Structure formats: structure tokens, C-alpha cells
Amino acid sequence: MVWVHGGTNTTGAGSFYDPTPLVAAGGVIVVTLNYRLGALGFLAHPALMAESGTTGNYGLADQQMALHWVRENIVSFGGDAGDITLFGESSGGMNVLNQLISPAAAGLFQKVIVESGSFQLSTQNLQASEKQGLQFGRILGCTDQTAACLRSKTTDEVLTRQGNPVGRFVSYALATVDGNILPASQSTAFPEGRFHRVPILFGNNGQEGRLFVSPTLTAAEYPGTLAGYAKAANRPTPGVLLAYPLKDYATPADGAAAAYGDANFDCTDRRLERWFSRFVPTFEYEFNDDADGTAPLGPTHGTELKYLFGVTYMGPILDGAPATLPPSSRALSLAMRQYWTAFAQHGIPNHRGIPIWRPAASGNIQMLTAPRPQASSGASFDLKHKCGYWN
After folding, report:
1. CB 63 within 8 A of CB 91
2. E strand or H helix that includes residue 312
3. Chain segment 126-141, per-residue pLDDT in tens
4. pLDDT tens-digit map of 59-68
5. Which residues pair with 364 in a beta bridge?
6. What's the distance, CA 284 to chain centroid?
7. Which of 12, 65, 201, 321 is the most buried (most CB within 10 A)?
8. Mind telling me the catalytic residues?
């Protein structure tokens, strides 16, 4: 199992994740990797394109190089070079989805697991990414826009001026349809079946949006905030307040968090399910455990990680490990690790002693709740997350 960490393709490291709990539960080998981040990994620029015929996806290329290393060397660690599961969370999950499309990744993995990775189904085109790169060149003082000038800048100069995807200015996209490493956007390639045909396990967390919405959001700000989410998703703005009336929520932040999570994770996952199930074995989940009330934001973005790994350096909301969870959540953690590792071994997540996980094509979504997971339906999921509006 090869892990691609998240962090908006800007921060993070493979060393933040101790895979010992997965290894102990499932008898697998887990490899964590690092890849170039920020502008170093995802800047697109015409001068760089002219050199190599690709630009904007250096981080994806790094992940592919790591997979080549695993395929060439894992036998020395007792592994099977022909049985590799690529898995990741957040931007790492998005990267895994893009590897499914990349021709250069063909044959490098046989199964994939995607955790909360469906937030960018429409990938930026080369023209838009290169426009950002040219702007960044000017910021760096490279008025001639040459590759030599860009490379003459120090790492600190690049990192301090590159911006961040959650800020107002950023010099790079999270990926770019460059026609080489990434030939098409997810929303184009997946419905047409233009991806590597491997079994897929994927899902989201029940309250993804809580991590992304300010708890101080006011009632006056609520309509404009939701209208922004609707506009970004190309949905009619009047309908969003009908779907999420403020009176239905304890605070404006609760309503906005529900809308943000539904728009960017829950209902985009439902689109993936429709696309994937037509072509490959597909298993879908929703993680919905609040660690017996001890998780400050509930089952928000990233909180499933401590059920699979020992997580460090990610902050108090995400840090932890299976052994630090309350007893009922430890039982769920073990079941999740058994599901993940069984899928890695067999392409089907079922394991003796835990509830059966049926394929998504049967209408099932596996609800990962403590102490034992249970089957649910896509129809009830769509109703709960307002997917009739978002999709």
C-alpha cells in the first residue's frame, strides 16, 4: 500500500503518518512518500513546457517515480511488485484520482483508495495555469520569463511568494490538464471510462465542511456565503437557501458547513460512484464517528486518519492514533483497517468478523460508525446531503 499524503498540495509529509496500525491489522507493507509541493510541484509556465512537453504536474510525476521505485524494490521487503494499492486523503486523494487518468501511471498500481478526494473534478486547463505562472514570474522579478531566471531564485523566494490555494493569490493550480501527464479533467475522463480499470474504494466524512467554515460566521453573512458555494458549483443561487434554511441549524456556521461539505465532497462522491460503477468494482463509504463526543468538530475533514494511522504534526483536531480513541471508536478503527487492508489484498474490502460491505452498484454506502459499521443506501445519503440540488 503506497500512501499519498494530503495538505492542499502545499504542505505535509509522508513522515506525518505512522502506518504501523495498518501493518499490524492487515499484514500489509505500507510505503509513505514525499513529493514536490506548492510552486515547486505544481507551477505551470510556458518556458518549462517548451523544455519538456509537460508543466504544472511535477508533484504527480514525483508520485509516479515513487511507484516505479516500489515496483522495482518492494520484493526486497517481502512485497509483491504486481499488487500495489495507491491510496491518499484530501489533496492526496485528488492526486490518486488524477493518477487514475495519467497514461504515465499505467500498470503502476492495481487498486486505489480515495479518502475525501473528490473536491476538484474539473481540473484547470494549461492556458489558465500558465497565466498564473507568468504572473508569478513577474512577482519573482523574471521579466524575461525564462526558465533560467526562474531557477535562479532561491527556495525561500519561491515559497514566500507562491501564495496558498486557500488565499487570495496563488501561483499554481492543484493540477493542470497539460496533455501529457494529465490528458483530461476528471469530469471528462471518468464518465467516458478513460481511466485505469482497477477496483476503487472511496468515500467522505459526514461533516467535511466544519474544518473549512469559520465558527464566527454571522446570520448576515449566511446568504452570501451559501450563494458563493452555489456559484462555485454552477448551481442556481436562489435554491441554496431553500435547501439550507438557516432556521434548520443551531448556528450559521453549522448550516454553511453542511452546504460546503455537501457541495465539495459528499455529492461529488456520488458523481464518482455513478461514473466508476459502470466500469470497475466500486465500494463507497461515509465515515461518521465523533470519537464518543471527543472530536471537537465531529467527523470533519481528515478525522478518519487517526483511525488508520498514528498521525502527528497535523494539529490537535487530526493528531492521534487508534490506541488513543475511546473504546467504541477503537472497535471501528480496527474494522476500518481490516476493510482497507482486505481491499488491498483482494480488491474486495470484506473481512471475517466485520459487517459485509456490498459494492456501490448494489445501492449500498457503508456507514463507518462506532462500534460497528453498517450498510446504508445511496438514496438516503442523497437525501441527507441535498444531492438533488448539488447534482
Report:
1. no
2. none
3. 999 999 999 999 999 9
4. 999 999 999 9
5. 377
6. 14
7. 201
8. 90, 208
